[in-house]
Design a protein that fits this description.
Blueprint lengths: L23 E7 L6 H10 L5 H14 L1 E8 H17 L5 E6 L1
Antiparallel strand pairs: 1-2, 1-3
Helix pairs in contact: 1-2
């Protein structure tokens, strides 16, 4: 019984490893005529860790311009903060809406 063997194996491949940063997403809070400004300010402080001053400025921007970016995160974190905000608002009977925009 005869078997062929390969005496030399040459590997002439170069493996290139590419590491890229995960995409970032903007959490955009939308204006509505029902959700009180006090709740929006509280939400921004609790969920998005804004200071009182920043939360008030963003709330006024949302009220006057219709929306504002309240945070920029990786997709998973942006989605979690958005869901947390909407759920807390729904529990209080507010129709607050947020959207995620890829940066």
């Amino acid at each position: 019984m005869m078997t062929d063997t390969i005496d030399e194996v040459k590997i002439d491949e170069k493996i290139k490893v590419t590491i890229s940063e995960p995409s970032k997403y903007k959490v955009v809070m939308l204006n509505d005529e029902v959700t009180p400004m006090e709740w929006v300010i509280d939400l921004m402080k609790l969920v998005f860790n804004h200071s009182q001053e920043t939360a008030e400025k963003l709330t006024l921007t949302i009220h006057s311009e219709g929306s504002a970016v309240v945070g920029i995160y990786t997709y998973e974190i942006a989605e979690q903060k958005s869901v947390e905000s909407v759920n807390a608002s729904r529990e209080r009977g507010f129709p607050l809406q947020l959207r995620l925009d890829k940066e």
